[in-house]
C-alpha cells in the first residue's frame, strides 16, 4: 500500500470519528438563541420582528442577520425543513461535514509542502479541535465551516488555471460570501492569486462577479439598519492580529482554558510566546525567499479576516473564530517548509499532533450542561408546548419568554419569538416542543415555567361575576397547619369567593405539583369572581390561596 493511499484511509477514518464525536457532544441540544429565528422564519424589519409566511421568500433569504448576509445559511435551513423537517441532528451533521471538508482541503494543501504522512498532522489538529467549542457544538456556525471549506476549494480550483476551474472557483467564492464574511477574505486571497499569475485581467471576473453581488446586497440591505461595523475600530486591528495568532497557537497545543458557560477561551502566556516565535520565524523564512505563491494568499486571507473581526469589534478569544484562524495559521506554517519531510519525520510530526488531542476532544464535553445551547432547551420546549396547547387562543404577537411571570421563574430566553411565528413554524417544519407526557417528567422548575407560559398565552384572568346559579356545585376549602388551600378545578367557568376580610392572592398551577402557582389576581372579600379555564383535555388545574375560599362549577 502506498503512503498516499494509507494516509487517505487514515484521514477518512479520522473524519468519521470526528463526526461521531460532534454528534455525541451535541446530543441533548435543540434549537436555541439565533436558531429560533431561522426555525420560525423571523427577521428584524422596521425595528421589530417580522415573520415571513412563504418558504424561500427572497426578502427573508436576503435580509441581513445581525448585519451579516445570511443567504446561504437560511437556504440550508429552509431546504432541510422542507425535506426532512426540524431534525436538529441534520444541522449538526452539516456543520461537521463543513469541518471535515476544511480539514481535508487543509491536508491537500499541506501535502504539497510537507509530504503525505506529515500532512496528517495539521488535518488531525483541525478534525479534533474541540477547543473551538462554539464552532463544533452550535450547528448554526456551519455558516463558517462551509464558508471556510468553499473558500479553500475555490483557491484549489484557481490553481488549475483552466476554464472549468475558474468557473468553479467563481461559484465557490459566491457561496462562501453568501454564508458569512469569511468569503470576503477568500475573495481577497483569490484576487491576489490571480494577480500573481498569468492572464490576470482576463481572469478578473472570477472575483469581480461575487464581489459585485455582495456589494449590491450590502447597498440594498442598508435599509434594514443592521450594520455592526465601525471603521474607527480599525485601530484595534494589530492587537486583533496578534491575539488571533496567540489564541490559535495556544489552542492548537491543547493548553487553552475552557470557559464552558461563555464559549470563550483566552490568549495564554504560552500562546503569546508561540505567536512571537512564530512571527519571527516567518520573517526569517520570508527573508530567505523561495516561498510558494499561496503563502501570500493565506497571509492576505488571514489579514482580511482579522481586520473584519476588528472592525466589527469581535473578540478573537471567542471560540467561533478559532477554526478559521487556526486553519490559516497552519496553512502559512506548512508553506514555510522548503521540501516534503521524509516519512519518519512526518510520523514524528503526527505523534506530536496527537499530544494535544485529548485536551481538545475533552473540551467538547467539558461543562457541556452550563452552556445556553442546553440550559435554554428545557425552558423553550416547555414554553412552546404551552403555545401549542393554547392554540388559536393565543395572541400571535405574544412572546412567552418576555412575559414577566415567565421571566421571573427563569424562563426569559436569550431570544424569544412571537407565538404566531412559532405556531406557523410548528405546523410547517414540525414541533420542537415537549409533548405533555414529556413535560410532566421535567423538573419542578420547568413545569412552573410551563404553568406561567400557559396562563399568559390563553390568557387566564379573574373577572368579577354574579353569584353562581343553582345548577353549580359549591365547596369551601380552608388552609390548615400553615399550608395554603389547594382546590382542584376543571376546565370551564369556575366561580370563586374568598371568606373574611382582605384581598387574598390566588395562584394557579397545572403541571407543577407544589408552590404558590402562577399569580393571577387578588380576590375581593365577599365578592364573587369567575375563572375561565380552557377545556383542552390536558388535565385539571389547582387553585392555590392562603384564604378560605369557596369554588363553584357545573
Please, could you describe this protein's structure?
Helix content is 53%, strand content 10%. It has 554 residues and is an alpha+beta fold. It folds into three domains: 3-31 and 86-367, no CATH class; 372-457, no CATH class; 462-553, Jelly Rolls (Sandwich). The strands form three sheets. Strands 3-9-6-11-4 form a five-stranded antiparallel β-sheet, with no helix packed on it. The protein has a four-stranded antiparallel β-sheet with strand order 5-10-7-8. The chain has a two-stranded antiparallel ribbon with strand order 1-2. The longest helix is centred in the first third of the chain and has 27 residues, at 88-114.
Short key terms for the protein model shown above:
554 residues, alpha+beta, Jelly Rolls, 3 domains, 5-stranded antiparallel sheet, 22 helices, elongated
Amino acid at each position: 500500500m502506498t503512503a498516499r493511499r494509507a494516509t487517505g484511509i487514515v484521514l477518512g477514518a479520522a473524519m468519521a470519528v470526528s463526526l461521531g464525536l460532534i454528534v455525541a457532544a451535541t446530543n441533548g441540544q435543540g434549537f436555541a438563541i439565533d436558531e429560533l429565528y431561522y426555525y420560525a422564519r423571523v427577521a428584524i424589519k422596521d425595528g421589530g420582528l417580522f415573520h415571513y409566511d412563504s418558504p424561500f421568500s427572497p426578502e427573508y433569504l436576503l435580509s441581513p442577520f445581525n448585519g451579516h448576509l445570511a443567504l446561504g445559511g437560511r437556504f440550508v435551513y429552509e431546504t432541510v425543513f422542507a425535506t426532512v423537517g426540524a431534525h436538529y441532528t441534520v444541522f449538526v451533521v452539516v456543520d461537521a461535514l463543513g469541518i471535515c471538508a476544511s480539514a481535508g482541503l487543509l491536508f491537500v494543501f499541506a501535502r504539497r509542502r510537507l509530504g503525505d504522512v506529515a500532512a496528517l498532522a495539521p488535518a488531525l489538529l483541525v478534525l479534533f479541535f474541540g477547543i473551538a467549542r462554539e464552532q463544533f457544538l452550535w450547528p448554526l456556525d456551519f455558516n463558517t465551516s462551509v464558508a471556510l471549506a468553499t473558500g479553500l476549494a475555490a483557491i484549489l480550483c484557481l490553481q488549475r488555471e483552466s476554464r472549468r476551474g475558474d468557473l468553479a472557483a467563481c461559484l465557490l467564492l459566491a457561496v462562501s460570501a453568501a454564508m458569512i464574511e469569511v468569503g470576503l477574505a477568500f475573495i481577497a486571497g483569490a484576487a491576489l492569486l490571480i494577480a500573481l499569475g498569468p492572464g490576470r485581467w482576463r481572469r478578473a471576473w472570477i472575483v469581480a462577479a461575487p464581489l459585485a453581488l455582495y456589494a449590491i446586497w450590502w447597498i440594498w440591505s442598508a435599509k434594514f439598519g443592521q450594520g455592526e461595523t465601525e471603521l474607527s475600530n480599525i485601530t484595534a486591528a494589530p492587537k486583533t492580529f496578534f491575539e488571533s495568532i496567540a489564541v490559535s497557537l495556544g489552542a492548537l497545543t491543547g493548553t487553552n482554558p475552557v470557559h464552558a458557560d461563555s464559549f470563550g477561551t483566552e490568549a495564554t502566556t504560552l500562546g503569546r510566546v508561540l505567536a512571537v516565535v512564530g512571527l519571527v520565524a516567518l520573517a526569517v523564512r520570508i527573508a530567505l525567499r523561495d516561498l510558494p505563491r499561496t503563502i501570500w494568499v493565506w497571509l492576505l486571507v488571514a489579514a482580511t479576516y482579522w481586520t473584519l473581526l476588528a472592525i466589527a469589534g469581535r473578540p478573537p478569544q471567542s471560540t467561533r473564530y478559532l477554526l478559521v484562524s487556526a486553519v490559516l495559521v497552519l496553512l502559512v506554517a506548512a508553506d514555510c517548509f522548503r521540501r516534503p519531510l521524509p516519512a519518519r519525520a512526518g510520523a514524528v510530526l503526527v505523534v506530536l499532533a496527537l499530544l494535544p488531542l485529548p485536551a481538545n476532544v475533552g473540551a467538547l464535553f467539558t461543562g457541556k450542561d452550563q452552556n445556553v445551547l442546553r440550559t435554554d432547551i428545557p425552558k423553550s420546549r416547555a414554553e412552546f408546548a404551552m403555545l401549542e396547547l393554547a392554540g388559536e387562543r393565543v395572541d400571535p404577537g405574544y412572546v412567552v419568554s418576555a412575559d414577566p411571570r415567565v421571566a421571573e421563574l427563569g424562563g426569559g430566553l436569550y431570544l424569544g419569538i412571537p407565538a404566531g411565528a412559532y405556531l406557523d413554524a410548528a405546523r410547517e417544519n414540525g414541533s420542537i416542543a415537549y409533548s405533555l407526557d414529556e413535560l410532566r417528567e421535567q423538573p419542578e422548575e420547568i413545569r412552573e415555567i410551563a404553568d406561567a407560559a400557559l396562563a399568559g398565552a390563553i390568557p387566564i384572568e379573574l373577572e368579577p361575576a354574579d353569584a353562581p346559579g343553582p345548577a353549580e356545585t359549591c365547596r369551601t376549602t380552608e388552609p390548615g397547619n400553615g399550608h395554603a388551600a389547594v382546590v382542584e378545578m376543571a376546565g370551564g367557568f369556575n366561580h370563586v369567593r374568598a371568606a373574611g376580610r382582605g384581598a387574598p392572592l390566588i395562584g394557579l398551577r397545572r403541571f407543577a405539583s407544589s408552590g404558590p402557582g402562577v399569580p393571577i389576581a387578588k380576590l375581593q372579600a365577599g365578592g364573587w369572581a369567575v375563572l375561565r379555564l380552557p377545556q383542552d383535555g390536558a388535565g385539571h388545574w389547582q387553585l392555590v390561596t392562603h384564604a378560605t375560599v369557596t369554588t363553584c362549577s357545573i
